[in-house]
Amino acid sequence: MCATPLPVPKTLVLIGLMGAGKTSIGKRLATKLHLPFVDADHEIERAAGCTIQEIFDRFGEAGFRDGERRVIARLLEQPVQVLSTGGGAFMDEGTRQLIRDRGISVWLRADLDLLVHRTARRDHRPLLRQGDPHTVLGRLMEVRYPVYAQADLTVDSDDSPPDVTTDRVIVALRQWLGDADSTAA
Ligand code: S3P
């Protein structure tokens, strides 16, 4: 049986640590909800004309966060969409406030082993080049998880197929929106 369409009033903003699946789940979510998908990191690189690693090298993490805040503010001015953000975005107070005001935040919560495993596939993340990824991610988890917990929705991202996690987000969203029909879209 087809579920009723879900009217999404504000942009869905995916937050969570590197490797939590924000881009992969975000794309699937956008397809299922018939919304556009946009990736903040990709937009930051496009606006700067260089990679995130190059931005970190030239301007440091603080410079990156400034650009990230500006880009996310611009993306949140656009019509409702699914927005995947980099793992540090919600840690920046200004960005967090923008997301609170103009979006619905969804924390994809994952455990450390899964994050280490997933992020080992590629070597493009500046923070993970600063030390042993297991140690770096473990430290970030301690600092960030209490802040990510302020998100509107929390959904576990585990090693289930991505469509299962995506459906979990939709069920959580339906509940959060107070929709009686909480079956997946
Ligand atoms: C960062 C996460 C990265 C990217 C940058 C900083 C972070 O995005 O924004 O390298 O501070 O956690 P992903 O979470 O998409 O890997």
Q: In whole angstroms, how far apart are the ends?
A: 10 Å
Structural class: alpha/beta
Tally of individual helices:
7
Shape: globular
Low-confidence stretches: none
Number of domains: 1
Percentage beta strand:
5-15%
The CATH architecture term is 3-Layer(aba) Sandwich
- Please state the CA-atom Rg, rounded to the nearest Å: 16 Å
What does the model show?
The protein has helices at 22-33, 40-48, 52-75, 93-102, 112-119, 133-148, 162-176, and strands at residues 11-15, 37-39, 82-84, 103-109, 153-156. The protein has 185 residues and is an alpha/beta fold. It has one domain (11-174): Rossmann fold (3-Layer(aba) Sandwich), CATH 3.40.50.300. A five-stranded parallel β-sheet has the order 2-3-1-4-5. The protein is globular. The model has no long low-confidence stretch (mean pLDDT 94). Shikimate-3-phosphate (S3P) binds next to loops.
What are the defining features of this structure?
185 residues, alpha/beta, Rossmann fold, globular, binds shikimate-3-phosphate
